[in-house]
Amino acid sequence: MIAEILSVGTELLMGQIANTDAQYLSRRLAELGISLYRHTVVGDNPGRVKAALLEALRRADLVVTTGGLGPTEDDLTKEAVAEAFGLPLELHAPSLRAIESFMAKGNYPMAENNRRQAMMPRGATVLENPVGTAPGCIVESGGKTVAVLPGPPRELKAMFEAGLAPWLARRSDMCLESRYLRTAGVRESDLENRLRDLFHSGNPTLALYCAPGEVTARITARAETPDAARALLEPVEAEIRRRLGDRVYGEGMDLTPEAVVFRLLDERRQTVSFAESCTAGLLPARLVDVPGASRVLGESHVTYSDEAKHRVLGVRRETLAQFTAVSAQCAVEMAEGARRISGADWAASTTGYAGPGPADDGTPAGTVYIAVAGRDGTSVRECHFPGDRAFVRALAATAAFDMLRVALLEAR
Amino acid sequence: MIAEILSVGTELLMGQIANTDAQYLSRRLAELGISLYRHTVVGDNPGRVKAALLEALRRADLVVTTGGLGPTEDDLTKEAVAEAFGLPLELHAPSLRAIESFMAKGNYPMAENNRRQAMMPRGATVLENPVGTAPGCIVESGGKTVAVLPGPPRELKAMFEAGLAPWLARRSDMCLESRYLRTAGVRESDLENRLRDLFHSGNPTLALYCAPGEVTARITARAETPDAARALLEPVEAEIRRRLGDRVYGEGMDLTPEAVVFRLLDERRQTVSFAESCTAGLLPARLVDVPGASRVLGESHVTYSDEAKHRVLGVRRETLAQFTAVSAQCAVEMAEGARRISGADWAASTTGYAGPGPADDGTPAGTVYIAVAGRDGTSVRECHFPGDRAFVRALAATAAFDMLRVALLEAR
Fold it and tell me: For a tag site, which of A78, A190, A303, B105 has the least CB within 10 Å?
């Protein structure tokens, strides 16, 4: 089955938001073995929505639309789908009752424009919205299918999982299996050179993706059953792991260095604390994204001023005077101070200039010192990260987790 | 001038990344007065890239491509552009020298596949890549223009700003002006009802965008000069501000509640500190995204365990025993403790259950207490946020900044 995604929303064409709906659907359609060939985004314009829909229906068996189902006046996707298939819109009474009940529960007034959300193309399979007002639908005609989903990401995900995914799973005839081998601190062209000959295979396919501080090797195999796809995939995965060794920090599309650090700590029933200057909260914020983080994190401190570095963490005034706060010495004392005051098994610290612009003493933006303190001592690294303020901070956080991962593995 | 964006990358169709390149370009093209009608994403497939390019060229005057310029074997955009225009690819010697120099500076080996990056369609205007190896280009033929940009967001932005934006600014014949009126804690349908009659104007246009915990009203006017566009826009902006009052926390596409809090603090030369449980680092991480944050933030503490709440912030053991850590009482003592130990003028605290699943005592996920302590006392709010763990934490952080904003305004 060949699919396309059609997203409707002037906010996408104005760049107000990124198309994360298309990203989510892409991943889930791949997992269902559906081949996705295109994303299209058009604005809230009835003529252009209908034209894009008709084009997509010429190329694909399934078109999944996102957006244009809300109560506001610029929402128009269902109308375009009904017109494209030559179907009238009719009031769907159960949807109207569901909308009324949703509004009543939240103590929101039922507006006239909420009633429009209960209009459906004749004969459509209605998809309930478990977390919002706008229902979606599936319309089938002439061998083609359009699935209409809402734009707000929470509603899209809930409706996809509860309604569309089970419907599609019953119709899919091919399985894709993918592996995502994750590396941190390795260049794309370096990986490309190590894996060059593996790019020529048609099945499984191999591709490299870059994200800040990370490169991922994706391997995807296609077959009629999950088992057959895995049998094609596994020898290629083993070969790549052999070539890359411990450069691979783990496997999984959603895996992060912090999730690996969490797992290593949790397995050993150990704890960590952080002492941050330039990353200022990113390290605990990222670690706590992993459910269960309270088992490995008790406390964490942002010491942005020199005064706080001394008072909270015990960094010596002489260290700050002699080497400044952006120094290997300060990073070491921050990590050791955080480990001491928290009683944690491990501590990591960051101190640096995230920019914009160089420091008063001429130290360039992107200079960051990262230290990791453990039972057996403290290691420290001087890093020079490219990019703007947010990018430098994100790279520093990724590097701190990767340093912690390596320290945990070496302490095994 | 009508434009479309064509993004090339199987990683987009697999959902590995969101199309943030298209978002960035959309915003910048709008600022340049270029009407953007469509985004298209296709995979790394030469036939489908070429077909999508030819279709886009039939509809638009300008097609901006992103991706498919890297050294790896799946990169093929320039080839497709050359074929679409019937032009040969030729070695561009200055680009080859720039790539060699970039690789030498970073101490990277020059790979054979890096040389392919210096091949350009004949007659193209080459766009230098200030932060990476892949140069881009502008190709003009038969009244149509294709601009070829790299996929990695840092490289895309740098090349757009240094090369393509100045080139386009010289050719643009129409200006768009937009205002983004930002609200936090207001429902979309509530705003829609207050502004209903204003949606019918053709110029300026009005649209509402939702993000976690926020709704933005965008007003966009189109005219031949920036002044004329502003003259159309300003009366509508004034009317919306009159209707929404202090629900509007500020104006700007990139504005955030934390940037407003930073500005209010900085104007008064006041400081803030945080005591976080469930948000665990998000508050300082978001505040420090604002350049100059060191003037208003000295330190911040994550106290995830009860033990840390008591030891670091001085929350009384009786409070924790009687009310638990997820209580208004605990939030108040956390905020007051953070204000006391830091010496800051203000402190905000968060404590709650982000999920997944309810707490052991049955308190549902999404229950969060937020307190703000200042010179004149402490206020506290009980919140019930929907959604998953990351969503609850993000909403709690937004609500904490909005509470702090209101407290700052009331203390004026």
Answer: B105
CATH of the domain at A373: 3.90.950.20
In this prediction, residue A107 carries a pLDDT of 65
Domain end: B141, B169, B197, which one?
B169
Distances (CA, A) of B165 to B158, B257, B391: 10, 30, 35
The two tokens of residue A125 are 């399979």
Judge if A207 and A70 occupy the same domain.
no
Q: How far is A54 from chain B (nearest CA, A)?
A: 14
Contact at CB, A297 and B302, closer than 8 angstroms: yes
- Whether residue B241 sits in one domain with residue B157: no
> Which two tokens mark B41?
């994403």
B235 lies in the same domain as B333:
no
Q: Each residue of B369-381: pLDDT tens digit?
A: 999 999 999 999 9
* Chain A CA closest to residue B55: A55
Determine the Cα–Cα distance for residues A204 and A229; give it in Å rounded to an integer. Answer: 8
Q: How many CB atoms lie within 10 A of CB A388?
A: 15
Across the interface, whether the CB atoms of B387 and A154 are under 8 A apart is answered yes
Q: Does residue B164 share a domain with residue B66? A: yes
Residues of chain A neighbouring B390 (CB-CB closer than 8 A): 289
Residues A212 and A344 both lie in one domain:
no
> Which residues of chain B does A12 touch, with a Cβ-Cβ cutoff of 8 Å?
22-23, 26, 39
A381 and A397 both lie in a single domain? yes
Of B14, B108, B286, the CB nearest to A26: B14
Q: Could you give the CA distance from residue A180 to residue A216 in angstroms, rounded to a whole number?
A: 6
**Interchain proximity B288–A305, CB inside 8 Å:** no
* CATH number of A181's domain: 3.30.70.2860
| Centroid of chain to Cα A33 | 21
Which of A169, A184, A214 corresponds to the end of one domain? A169
The answer on pLDDT for A111 being more than 80 is no
Task: Check residue A394 and give its pLDDT.
Answer: 93
Q: Which of A113, A207, A294 sits opposite B304 (nearest CB)?
A: A294
Write the pLDDT tens digit of every residue in A4-60.
999 999 889 999 889 999 999 998 898 787 899 999 999 989 999 999 999 999 999
Q: Which of A10, A208, A297 sits opposite B304 (nearest CB)?
A: A297
Q: Which domain holds residue A341?
A: 257-410
* Cβ atoms within 10 Å, residue A138: 20
Q: CA-to-CA distance for A58 and A205, rounded, in angstroms?
A: 27
> Which of B288, B294, B388 is best to mutate for the A interface (most A CBs within 10 A)?
B288
Q: How many CA atoms lie within 13 A of B207 on its CB side?
A: 23
Q: How many residues does this entry show for chain A?
A: 412
Q: What integer pLDDT is reported at residue B72 of this predicted model? A: 67
Do A26 and A94 reside in the same domain of the chain?
A: yes
Phi, then psi, of B63 in degrees rounded to 5: -120, 125
* 3-state SS class at B343: coil
Nearest Cβ partner of B71 from A19, A133, A189? A189
B100: part of which helix (H) or strand (E)? Answer: helix B93-105
**Quick one: B113 and B131 in the same domain?**
yes
Instruction: Please tell me the distance in Å from B229's CA to the nearest CA on chain A.
Output: 17
Q: What's the structural domain count of chain A?
A: 3
d(CA B406, CA B403): 5
Burial classification of residue A268, based on how many CB atoms lie within 10 Å of its CB (0-12 exposed, 13-18 middle, 19 or more buried): middle
Output the pTM of the full model: 0.76
Distance CA B401, CA A406 (A): 36
Helices and strands (H and E) in chain B: how many: 16, 17
Quote the minimal CA–CA distance from A128 to chain B in Å: 17
Q: Are B218 and A11 inside 8 Å of each other by CB? A: yes
Q: Which residues on B lie below 8 Å from A291 (Cβ)? A: 355-356, 389
